[in-house]
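Box 3.1 A note on notation
Throughout this textbook, protein chains are presented in two layers. The first layer is the amino acid sequence; the second is a token string describing backbone geometry. Keep the layers aligned when reading.
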Amino acid sequence: MSFQEYLSQKKINVEQFQQAEPDRFQEWQREFGQMHPESFTAQKKFLLNDTRRKYLVR
């Protein structure tokens, strides 16, 4: 699973997130590549919820 697919699955708009917060996007993409998606979710759970609220796929 790619990082973009993961964000789409979490209902986060990939393009908006990448344009608005490129540094965080790159950091998360790098971390996602180094761990299992479930571990990433557990580690970033609250941050993912905040990010989803900002960049919700409509």
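Helices lie at 3-9, 14-20, 22-34, 37-54. The mean pLDDT is 96.
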